[in-house]
Write a sequence for this structure.
């Protein structure tokens, strides 16, 4: 009895180790949140005095066509920027799970996009997208396809940006799923082989369901990151042409740091965060359902 | 070692048909590998190629892939036109300082959370993972304006803690949980206080975890664009912001653009080549990203 008592007290003592981090968190993360809520309730331009307006910023936001269009665009972008990296990433994980010569080296090369500086990468893609001189249209012409305007046309700008996002973040999906594959039990597959199952059948009926929890982790992370995507979109198009690639994040940036509508932008932050949390929670709920199914 | 789905059926097919199929299968496998790797290699090699070619070759059509007259002029131009040396130092200072502070504060926190099992405290890690970096920036911008810290490196170091600290806590939490508690228990029985047990027993054992956390915190700080683009002034720009400015001012100087891009990202790529094992451990443990 005394032992549990003392170990309980010791557990409390260990909380002291967390105090410095807590102070930093309060200063750098919690305070901004509280202050953002405060600002979102005011009419506030950077240089002029603030004025209490209650929920007016939120009401204006709901009526703002440009904001609503940005939300729609963000969802389209997110859907594409989750589906492509996850599908290709799972395939890549299956490939890299096999033993083959130079596996370590080739895997290191494959994960380079993930650690490369996004702005630098976006810059190279900007040059590759160039309609007249870009290398992508040249490659298309080699296989007999017509040239594309890529990020220079409202119709193709979102898919083109998704291409960059897919290029950069598929390796992360691959790594997560690869970790799942490495942890799989071998027995179900051995018995399937004995039963004469084909490779595709084994993948679909045994491997995929078993790694599904890892795939779902990848889906959740990809969703959060795609909703938040900023660096590449901002570097390549800054929301253009026109507003054709203006996602919530780009809209937020322009409101806050081009127009300095601090109160309005703070309301955007709150709505944006609610959207991200709602998406993540519904995906997590879906994951629970899948687990019990 | 698990058995890959694609590798199995060879054992089943009869030897004669099996050999033909196996060759075909192997061919398909290497083809798949080629399809996966070629976009990666193409982009990096194209960046290198652009940075080494004179303007005439960079704007030629059809594109010239292998430089005919390789030159380092593009790199000279980057350093001549803007203080890239200063920006490199800025990036190094910010990434190093914010990583060091993250470890200083985050390693004990990871230990405390793992030992006290206070996982509620870890929830903030997830929240900060979900929060768009941009949304911290408005309050920081106002606060730093008030404190007169805008346009200082301190503003960047402090804000980059938002990237480094969660990664550090998350990674260290995992490492300390996996550590066997017997050694610390023994030290405590011998009369050491919990601080000494942490410093002399747990900390040395957790060094691999600290390496993982440090590498990830450093890379994500180095790569960060959004905080510096708002908070940095002319003198305190980090490399990603400097590169972005090259883009806005020299739309068609492709050689210089590619050279600048290469200067920013090459250190990370080289680092990755040496520590890819740690990066994989860290990225799969936390799925973290700045």
């Amino acid at each position: 009895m005394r032992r549990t008592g003392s170990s309980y007290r010791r557990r409390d003592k260990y909380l002291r180790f967390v105090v410095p981090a807590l102070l930093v968190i309060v200063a750098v993360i919690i305070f901004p949140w509280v202050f953002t809520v405060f600002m979102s309730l005011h009419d506030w331009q950077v240089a002029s005095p603030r004025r209490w307006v209650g929920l007016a910023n939120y009401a204006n936001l709901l009526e703002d066509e440009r904001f609503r269009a940005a939300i729609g665009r963000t969802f389209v972008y997110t859907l594409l920027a989750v589906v492509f990296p996850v599908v290709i990433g799972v395939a890549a994980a299956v490939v890299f799970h096999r033993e083959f010569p130079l596996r370590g080296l080739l895997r290191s090369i494959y994960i380079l996009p993930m650690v490369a500086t996004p702005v630098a990468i976006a810059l190279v893609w900007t040059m590759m997208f160039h309609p007249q001189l870009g290398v992508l249209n040249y490659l298309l012409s080699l296989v007999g396809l017509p040239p594309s305007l890529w990020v220079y046309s409202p119709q193709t700008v979102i898919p083109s940006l998704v291409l960059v996002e897919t290029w950069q973040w598929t390796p992360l999906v691959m790594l997560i799923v690869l970790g799942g594959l490495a942890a799989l039990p071998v027995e179900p597959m051995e018995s399937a082989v004995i039963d004469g199952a084909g490779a595709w059948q084994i993948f679909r009926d045994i491997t995929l369901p078993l790694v599904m929890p890892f795939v779902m982790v990848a889906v959740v992370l990809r969703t959060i990151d795609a909703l938040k995507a900023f660096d590449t979109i901002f570097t390549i198009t800054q929301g253009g042409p026109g507003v054709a690639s203006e996602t919530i994040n780009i809209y937020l940036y322009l409101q806050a740091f081009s127009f300095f509508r601090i109160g309005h932008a703070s309301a955007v932050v709150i709505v944006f965060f609610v959207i991200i949390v709602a998406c993540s929670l519904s995906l997590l709920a879906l994951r629970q359902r899948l687990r019990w199914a | 070692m698990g058995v890959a789905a694609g590798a199995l059926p060879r054992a089943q097919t009869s030897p004669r048909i099996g050999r033909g199929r196996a060759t075909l299968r192997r061919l398909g496998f290497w083809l798949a590998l080629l399809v996966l790797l070629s976009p990666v290699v193409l982009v990096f090699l194209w960046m290198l190629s652009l940075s080494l070619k004179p303007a005439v070759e960079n704007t030629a059509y059809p594109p010239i892939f292998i430089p005919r007259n390789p030159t380092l002029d593009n790199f000279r131009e980057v350093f001549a036109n803007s203080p890239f040396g200063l920006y490199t130092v800025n990036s190094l200072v910010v990434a190093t300082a914010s990583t060091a502070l993250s470890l200083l504060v985050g390693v004990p926190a990871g230990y405390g959370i793992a030992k006290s099992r206070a996982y509620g405290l870890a929830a903030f890690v997830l929240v900060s993972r979900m929060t768009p970096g941009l949304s911290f920036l408005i309050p920081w911008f106002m606060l730093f304006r008030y404190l007169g810290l805008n346009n200082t490196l301190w503003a960047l170091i402090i804000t980059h803690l938002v990237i480094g600290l969660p990664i550090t806590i998350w990674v260290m939490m995992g490492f300390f949980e996996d550590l066997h508690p017997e050694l610390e228990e023994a030290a405590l029985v011998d009369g050491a206080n919990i601080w000494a047990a942490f410093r002399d027993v747990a900390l040395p054992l957790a060094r691999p975890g600290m390496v993982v956390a440090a590498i990830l915190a450093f890379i994500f700080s180095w790569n960060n664009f959004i905080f510096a683009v708002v908070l940095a002034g002319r003198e305190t720009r980090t490399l990603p912001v400097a590169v972005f400015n090259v883009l806005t001012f020299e739309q068609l100087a492709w050689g210089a653009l590619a050279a600048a891009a290469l200067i920013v990202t090459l250190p990370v790529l080289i680092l990755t080549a040496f520590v890819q094992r740690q990066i994989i451990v860290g990225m799969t443990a936390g799925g973290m990203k700045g």
Remarks:
- Chain B has 13 helices and no strands.
- The longest helix of chain B spans residues 15-52.
- Chain B has two domains: 5-71, 74-286.
- Residues 58 and 245 of chain B are 20 Å apart (CA to CA).
